[in-house]
Amino acid sequence: MCVGHGCFNVGLSYGLAKLGGQSGGLVPAAFTYLNFVEDSPLYSYGFGIFIALTFAWLLGFGATPAEPALNALGSTVENLTNGAFKKSMLMYSVAFGVACGIGLGILKMVINLPVIVLLLPFYFLAMFLTYISSEDFVNIAWDSAGVTTGPVTVPLVLAMGLGFGNAMGSIDGFGILSLASICPIIAVLLTGLWVQNGRSSADICWMNRNCHQLK
Question: CA 123 to CA 164: how far, in whole Å?
Answer without folding.
Answer: 26
